[in-house]
Amino acid sequence: MLAIMGAMDEEIELLLADLREREDVTLPGVTVHRGVLDGVPVLLTRGGIGKVNAAMTTTYLLVHGASRVVFTGVAGGVHPELRVGDIVVSTDLVQHDVDVTPLGYEVGTVPGELPAWPADPELRAAAVRAAQAVEGVQVVEGRVASGDQFIASVPGVTRLRETFGAACAEMEGAAVAQVCAKAGVPFVVIRSVSDTADTGADVDYREFMPRVARHAKQVVRGMLADLTAAP
Ligand code: ADE
């Protein structure tokens, strides 16, 4: 079953409104909504903010039958060409706040894990096609950098660009990726740019987040149509 996850209400509420045959499964800390979206059986949930919430919620989704996971939400643009409203589709994901360098690991590497978790090629391709159908936005495929930090400074953006080659910064994707990779479940992360993660990112985020979070509805629906289309 396809699972669709966002961090905040704004990121899933429009999809939830259209979920048919809805059944709410209440779990410790999270409610997972089962139902049918555009004729496709799905799990839909708001996981909360940050990597811990994301990892916990992803685990619940997998235990409840998710065989593919699509995460959708907003991000701070790090790639210099990204503007508010543009969409990033993950190529791979890193945890920029992990630092075990004193023990000889590269910054961002969790000992015993991949240095970056690659997103699924088929889900990526479907996400790119669906994102390209959103009018007036640029679609960039790139690395998503996740950490338990809201990035709002020029040095912060520069570090993510130079150290990790990141396209955008957010707070959940790599945790979803790590859990899915362990389970061998394909995933992709799709992010609309709400700010450019530099000075004033907090102001832009408050202004644009609710608006750009709405791209999620269009991209997810496009993906559903794409993934279920006859070959
Ligand atoms: N989500 C949206 N904007 C962000 C930023 N600047 N840093 C981290 N997460 C974000």
From TrEMBL:
Transmembrane segments: none annotated. Keywords: Amino-acid biosynthesis, Glycosidase, Hydrolase, Methionine biosynthesis. Signal peptide: none annotated. Pfam families: PNP_UDP_1. Residues 2-224 form the Nucleoside phosphorylase domain. Pathway: Amino-acid biosynthesis; L-methionine biosynthesis via salvage pathway; S-methyl-5-thio-alpha-D-ribose 1-phosphate from S-methyl-5'-thioadenosine (hydrolase route): step 1/2. Its EC number is 3.2.2.9. SUPFAM superfamilies: Purine and uridine phosphorylases. PANTHER family: 5'-METHYLTHIOADENOSINE/S-ADENOSYLHOMOCYSTEINE NUCLEOSIDASE, 5'-METHYLTHIOADENOSINE_S-ADENOSYLHOMOCYSTEINE NUCLEOSIDASE. This is adenosylhomocysteine nucleosidase.
